[in-house]
Amino acid sequence: MSKDKKKKSFSRRKFLVRSAVGVGVLFGAGYLSKPLWQRALAGLANTLEPPYSGTGITPPLWFEVRADNQIILYSPKVEMGQGTFTGLAQIAADELEVTTDQIKVVHAPSDSGNVDALSTGGSLSIATLWTPLRELAATMREMLKLEGAKLLATTPDKVEVANASISSNGKSLTYGEIAAQVSGWEIPDTPELKPPTERKEVGKGVPRVDLREKVLGAPIFGMDATMPDMLYGAVVRPDRIGATFKGADVSKAENMPGVVKIVQEPDFVGVIAQSRMEAENAKNAIQAEWETDRNWTSAEIKEMIKVGEGSPTTIQKKGRASRILNNEEDVISAEFESPIGAHAQLEPNGSVASVEGNQATLMISTQVVKITREEVAKRLGFKPEQVNIIPTYLGGGFGRRLHTPNAVQAAVLSKAVGKPVKCFFNRKEEFQNDTFRPPTHHIMKAKLTEAGKIKAIEHNLSSGDVMFGSPMFPAVAQSLLGADVGAWRGGMIQYGAIPNYKAVSWRVKLPFATSWWRSLGLLANTFAIETFIDELALKAGKDPVQFRLEHIQDDERGFRLKEVIKAASEKAGYKDEVVNGRAMGFACSTDANTPCAQVVEVSMENDRIKVHKVTCVIDPGMAVNPDQVRAQCEGAIIMGLSAAMYEKMEVVDGKLAPTIYGPYQMALMRDTPKDIDVVILENAEDPGPVGEPPLGPIGAAIANAAFRLTGERLRKMPFEG
Amino acid sequence: MMKISFTINKKPTTVEVDGNTPLLWVVRDVLDLKGTKFGCGKAACGACTLHVDGEAIRSCSYAVKFVEGKEVTTIEGLGNADNLHPVQQAWIEEIVPQCGYCQIGFMMATAAMLEKIPQPTDEDIDNNIVNICRCGTHYRMRKAIHRAAEIKNQSPQNQTS
Question: What's the CA gap between A644 and A628, in Å, rounded?
């Protein structure tokens, strides 16, 4: 089958239709037992990219054409560094017949009516908006044509569109001139979208649209936001796990300099002052009383996170893996662990809130505009429409801003004092009140045939919650799925040609908040599985790359995975041998529908692993902006390297620690590879997820390389912690 | 409360604040220059890096009283849209920022380093640029730092800025 044919028969559209039908059939099939349909749902959740859903269904909610011919694109997705604003501008530009730099992308405030139904996350912004945004932009172009034709006293079929202008018979009007004369838009049927051959902006590595603002230090972040007459708030936050607020003695704080008001609520106490430092100082003088039932320790948490503890759900099953692995001899097994991880994004959480009469306005870095609005409204007894969320640029997201109860506190403080209040976490509070990446424990088991092929393999994973408890998903969906989609992300066996395999997810509820951390379970799960696969390859006496290829099935997923594996191996010149004290390590993963393979080159320096080079091949289907796909790969590799090698939160005497960068060790300039070579394959028609998939292989690839130098298997992240 | 006089981005200024207030909050909230960022408040991440008499300082842990009579430069004074500093120019050429929050501190640290080490080696960069970036832009930053040195060394007018 030629590559082109291959592409055609596996278009995403068909895939989505197929998936949707699949869900219907599943729910209709009452005879399926619960484990069976949970497994089937898990299979769907592993590959499904849900369609975009939001309230912005007409072009005028997305586009504003200004008189100077600049087009404003109101984005319901937030920009947190992932480059979405740039990709959206490129996508819209092609259908609007303009260049990317003629479009300015801004965050849509929630009162604009263009609100995302869920979140910015899951690497889904470009993938899910790809078709809707092209349709909206193409329709907007037709609307401009319609109005332009009227003004030029002709019909839309007789006008030409180019360079943000409509022309006919030698007369021409800019989009801006047309829009200035329109009082109400007529919205026509969705026109045909441009074929790939006519795309000019999509596919180009145009510079980020926010580049200059970010290099000039423009005040674009949540923490830079101000409002007139603004005061500064600070909220006392617990340092102990499981602490419940009981009350506070505020007598000392009341008379501190700059203090305007102390606000005591049933669930928290906060202070409002003239300046940030005065608010912080007064907060530190408040004697809050907290109730905790016990002093948790790291050892206790470790005891909880163990395969066999908690409740199991089988997420993947083919053949008789358990029977083979429980009864036959020469079963190979290994255990892996990963620690509690902090988001450690540089901009702390917080917001500027103004509650006046029956209207609230908040400027905030959030990944969940809709949920932030609903939670603030609920606390104030408002309708959601009475709360306007103005999203700002995020000083990093990584999943940390998928829940923003801090917005509620800022709103309460503002209401109490009758003025806008800016209220932010300090760094200690960030580290102790994070929604952490949960720790994990994995048991891998496998049996090889005499010919050195995998006869059966099983992955048992124990993890704290990721999706469970998240306000993003209704409880009913969570119980329907049974297993935590976030925790087991990347936990399925991707080698479909193995005759017997099984993956089981064990759920553990930890006493502190665990949640979404860029790529969710992908980093830890891939670390366990791909280190183990490397081990099996060596036991089978085979080249690790060849061994992987032998176990991949012949379908579209398999084809795309094999292509990235082969390309990475070739580009890096992968060899399973030590040359000049340097060794290579190989690993790959498939996250959602995006396969990624990485080869790392390491040496040991003073008994520490030094990563010199990473070759990364990714197939996001199609790259809207190849430069930003590369940037996401570079960033994911460095973030994953940092987490795999250095990062670790501990529980000491009931408190999460450390509470500052440095002791919470992260990769610095000196630790990051000097060479990162990213290759993009495009083996599908439409763009898929990019931001998280390249975080998958890095931990395992480093561990596999280090093994070749030390002879010791790394089974516990962080490697150098 | 005390009066403290210094220049900020070449402009003389006097503020009346608690002298122990970190310079960062005076710059951000009193002088309303929001380019300099808060990251940790303990001089551990470098997001708040600015220049005091040409030296890179972590301003979250530097009391404002110590800048009396000194020259403070923030990103807003390093360069502007019409006259980019070589570091900003290089950051644009290499398309470095992702979320962008830590980048100001990195650029200020780089600009100060280039005054002392006009042609930094990789090792110089490793030893001198020790800020925290979560997006993982280090790979592009390293390229941009080398590029900034090149631009700066080619352009005599920038050598004294």
Answer: 24
Token output for A70: 């600049």
Q: Which of these, A142, A127, A126, lies nearest to A192 by C-alpha position?
A: A142
Chain A nearest CA to B137, separation (Å): 6
Q: Which residues of A596-630 are buried (b: 16+ CB within 10 A; e: fewer)?
A: bbbbbbbbeeeeebebebbbbbbbbbbbbbbbbbb
Dihedrals phi, psi of A355, to nearest 5 degrees: -115, 115
In whole angstroms, what is the distance from residue A191 CA to residue A141 CA?
9
- Residue B155 is classified by DSSP as -
Q: Which fold has domain B2-78?
A: Ubiquitin-like (UB roll) (3.10.20)
Pick the last residue of a domain from A424, A450, A473: A424
CA distance A216 to chain B (A): 6
What CATH superfamily classification does B86-155 receive? [2Fe-2S]-binding domain (1.10.150.120)
Q: What is the 3-state secondary structure (H, E, C) of A380-406?
A: HCCCHHHEEEEECECCCCCCCCCCCHH
- Minimal CA separation from B2 to chain A, in Å: 14
pTM listed for this prediction: 0.95
Q: Count of domains in chain A?
A: 4
Determine whether the interchain pair A212/B100 forms a contact, defined as Cβ–Cβ distance below 8 Å: no
Q: What is the ipTM of this complex?
A: 0.97
B98 to A635: CB separation less than 8 angstroms, yes or no: yes
CB A623 within 8 A of CB A682: yes
Which residue is associated with the tokens 């992955």? A459
Q: Which residues of B touch A666 (CB under 8 A)?
A: 132, 134
Q: What is the pLDDT of residues B124-156, one digit of tens each?
A: 999 999 999 999 999 999 999 999 999 999 986
* Neighbouring C-beta atoms of residue A135, cutoff 10 Å: 16
